[in-house]
Amino acid sequence: MNDTVFNRRSFLSSGLLAGCSIAASPLVTPVSFAATRGENRLVVIILRGGMDGLDFLRPPNSEMMTRLRPTLSQAAPSEMMLAEGFTLHPGCAPLYELWQAGELDIVQAVSTPYRHKRSHFDGQDLLEAGTATLGGAGESDGWLNRMLQHMPGGEMVTAYAIGADPMLLSRGAAEVESWSPDVNFVLSSQGARLMQLTMERDPEMARSLAQAFALASDAPGGGVIEVDDSEVMGDFDEMMAAQMTAKGKSAGSAHQRVASFAAAQLREEARVACFSLGGFDTHARQAKTLQRPLERLSDSLLTLKSELGAEVWGKTTVLAMTEFGRTVAENGSKGTDHGTGGSMILAGGALRGGRLLGQWPGLAEEDLFERRDLMPTDDVRRYAGWAIRESFGLSRQALETAVFPGMSLGDSPALLS
């Protein structure tokens, strides 16, 4: 074997790890994070599938709800009273502590400007683009990336996106690095030896690679490393072994690892993170199928709080939003179909929490959107805009013309304490 030592650039641009997505990980490549004046943090979670806001935030039980949702209105009653007779879905029971602590707000009857067609693909693109329509300016980049380009006092313009592929939310002129908790790779003894040669004169990259191996090895069904100890020796192996020991094999499910990894970055220089949670498309047996994704949402929020620590959590705002709500009436499969108005979730120690925000439109047939969906009475972009303004000080003009073009911020909901 030729003992040529590669530098970082040649390592990343070569085919040494062909078929291995670890080369795209910020644990291997040099990474900078979005930095700005102040200490506030922003986390954006996209809830993919169209979360049923009427099941997450349950309106007061009524004859109308019983008639429109005969199965769902009888399933798993909740004792977690929020305000005005609204209750929280039992799958989100851990979040009730956040509500009581003033660290959770829920916006009711809210949506993007998307109407009529109810396509996941179009709905998610509009949500992440932050625009009013598809096909216009801004469709190819995301509102979070555009926000980073206006961060006051920030010399670094690199976003940090967590996921297998860059989300539209963070795509744009500001460079984005990605990380996935489910990296799958197999490294032979020869491959490990080649990698060791690459790392011999670069201790910093060796440490990053060891961390990447450890994280990937926690992934279900992934991170298989086949190494002959007699062939591979030295600091690289010692660091990798130390990382594996430190991480162990019980790092939790993928969504918990994502939240944990985000918290680790936010404790340091990062000020912005985004990731997504799936499973909210509940066309059938919703009483059962919605339970698990809501538990994952609760896990993620509580993992962020726990691992950020009290000081950083107290400076953090989390926005959890979905592409659209679901029909008011349940369908023949005891689920719900794609709708319009839904719920938006705000969490974090920075919030003036414990509030239901937005205007309730009612459930009478004449009050529904197209006589089938919860009528949207507010725009998710407006609440995201105010969270950005209060966290980072962006101007109203930048938010209304660049970050969310064509959106009106309106009056302040006074989100942060």
TrEMBL record:
Protein name: DUF1501 domain-containing protein
Chain ranges passing through the membrane: none
Species classification: Bacteria, Pseudomonadati, Pseudomonadota, Alphaproteobacteria, Rhodobacterales
Domain of life: Bacteria
Organism of provenance: Shimia marina
InterPro entries with a match to the protein in the record: DUF1501, TAT_signal
